[in-house]
Design brief:
The chain has helices at 45-52, 75-81, 98-108, 113-126, 142-154, 172-184, 196-202, 220-224, 227-232, 243-246; strands at 6-14, 20-29, 34-38, 60-65, 68-69, 82-85, 160-164, 188-192, 205-210, 213-219. The chain is an alpha/beta fold. The chain is 35% helix and 23% strand. It has a six-stranded mixed beta sheet, with helices on both faces. A four-stranded antiparallel beta sheet has the order 2-1-4-5, with helices on one face. It has one domain (6-246): P-loop containing nucleotide triphosphate hydrolases (Rossmann fold), CATH 3.40.50. The structure holds adenosine-5'-triphosphate (ATP). The site of adenosine-5'-triphosphate (ATP) has 12 residues, from α1. Residues 6-236 form the ABC transporter domain.
């Protein structure tokens, strides 16, 4: 099989106060996959994500992105390859205009002039925000800001897009629109979420992390319909949502 885009092996991590958050996590994500990372509060999902672009350094084990180890000397290239969209778009948008925010990363990589303009336009086009290029980000709705945050990451042409709770704080229409955008992207996706219907809709595969350990890794349908697994790890389907009555969504 090809080199995984994301290859996490035996990853263990303890915070400086001694709290052990990850115990030997293995996770392999291949090109084009969309994978949901599920698990109760405190499972270690954020801790894992912070290792993917070198914000945290592995205590034991390793993380590689398309064969490149996530280590200090590689951190700049790793951060181009791993695009993380954090939960709060305001953590990612700080320039006077949408265009400037989306241009910031590629300009840092040395892109200029028409090449930079094109990169920005393409990224905004992917999230349906071209018409907002001249607007100050703080004048946009929350849902629009989240889409711009996704564009800032796409403009780096990452190998993997990591999304932390992408559906949080979105109204139903914005939630659906973002799902359509994400489904249409030609990029590998790892999505951290407590929104199990969103995981079901978007990600054919789910990985469940609990107490710092991977306790399940398989088809999202199988994970969400495994009642013993779900209750053992405090995962609950919202009232009225039953994957069995919907059936497996297409992987497309
Ligand atoms: N800076 C820190 N120092 C010490 N312990 C921490 C720190 N950050 C997180 N933890 C602990 O590590 C464990 C994993 O936390 P983490 O934030 O990775 O979980 P999570 O799965 O992302 O949770 P949530 O779903 O609530 O976002 C928790 O027990 C948490 O209290």
């Amino acid at each position: 099989m090809s080199t995984p885009v994301l290859d996490v092996r035996g990853l263990a991590y303890a915070y400086p106060d001694g709290h052990q958050a990850l115990f030997g996590v293995d996770l392999h994500v291949h090109r084009g996959e969309r994978v949901a990372l599920l698990g109760p509060n405190g499972a270690g999902k954020t801790t894992l994500v912070l290792h993917l672009n070198g914000i945290l350094a592995a205590g034991a084990g390793s993380v590689s992105v398309s064969g490149l180890p996530v280590t200090k000397p590689n951190v700049q290239e790793v951060r181009r390859r791993v695009g993380i969209v954090f939960q709060d778009p305001d953590d990612q948008l700080f320039m006077p205009s949408v265009r400037d925010d989306v241009a910031f990363g590629p300009a840092n990589l040395g892109l200029r002039g028409e090449a930079l303009e094109r990169r920005v336009r393409e990224a905004l086009d992917k999230v349906g925000m071209v018409d907002f290029a001249d607007r100050p980000p703080h004048h946009l709705s929350f849902g629009q800001r989240r889409r711009v945050a996704v564009a800032t990451v796409l403009a780096m042409e990452p190998e993997i897009l990591v999304l932390d709770e992408p559906s949080s704080n979105l109204d139903p229409a914005s939630r659906r629109e973002l799902a359509e955008i994400l489904r249409g992207l030609d990029v590998t996706v790892l999505m951290v979420t407590h929104d199990l219907p969103y995981a079901f809709e978007l990600c054919p595969r789910s990985v469940v992390l609990s107490d710092g350990v991977v306790v399940a890794d398989g088809a999202t349908y199988d994970v969400l319909t495994d009642d013993a697994l779900m209750s053992a790890h405090r995962l609950e389907l919202p009232f009225g949502f039953d994957p069995r009555t919907i059936g497996s969504p297409s992987a497309g």
